[in-house]
Design a protein that fits this description.
The protein has a domain at about 115-220. The protein is about 30% helix and about 40% strand. It has two helices and 13 strands, in the order H-H-E-E-E-E-E-E-E-E-E-E-E-E-E.
Length: about 260
Amino acid sequence: MVSETRDRGQLILVAAISIAFIILGLVVVFNGVLYTETVSSSGTSGSVTDAETVEYEIEQGVRGLVQQQNLAGDPPDSDEFESTYRSSINDEKPAIVAIERVDGVQEAAFESGSISPGDVANSEQVGQFRVKMNLDNSDPGDRLGLEIDSDTVDIEYTGTELAVTGDVSCTIDTSGQDDVWVDFTSGAVGAKTQGSCEFDLIDSTDTTTTITVTSSTDIDGEYELITKNSGSRTWTAEVEYTYDSADVSIERTIEVDVYGDRT
């Protein structure tokens, strides 16, 4: 009787140990599957993030290139952008990116001319407005006055610098320069500055921008203007590209507002 009880106990113990090993094996397998899924999911997530970064880089790059081409009078060039983009990215980027095409899908108008009193733009959407002041043909005391909507800017050539007053207050060093560009959309200045030279007075999303030259003693110079009107330039570009990595393959066509977000 005692022997039977002992044998039954041993069988129960062996069965319990076997069940424990089976459960342990199932836990190991289940954890391995979870780990594999986590690693796979993490890799896919990283690829998606990289793809989003690539699209942002493409948008910013197309904006800059088409803005330059608009001023030069050239149409959007897919090959030029492809070459420029490839030279700017890291060779170790874990994906193959191909720019299939860059086309203009919405027109813009280009205008240029000598600086003279009067309206340059009258209640229009302005993508870019910049002024070049030819200092070698200007005399000390010559001035350029501008009204851009409610902002006023007065620029006086002193012979060694441009003194800026009004809603922008600073000085532009002109030593050693025959001319100076000022961009009133991006705020860029083609010379060293001192003070708060914040010339980005034009919001390219505003559809009612008015620009007026008000000065009576003009600095010799010229302007270039891009507006959202019918013309031979590009306001909106369409970009088709592909992105291929080990985890993600994307074919995308996006529209880029050439004069949109400048950040």
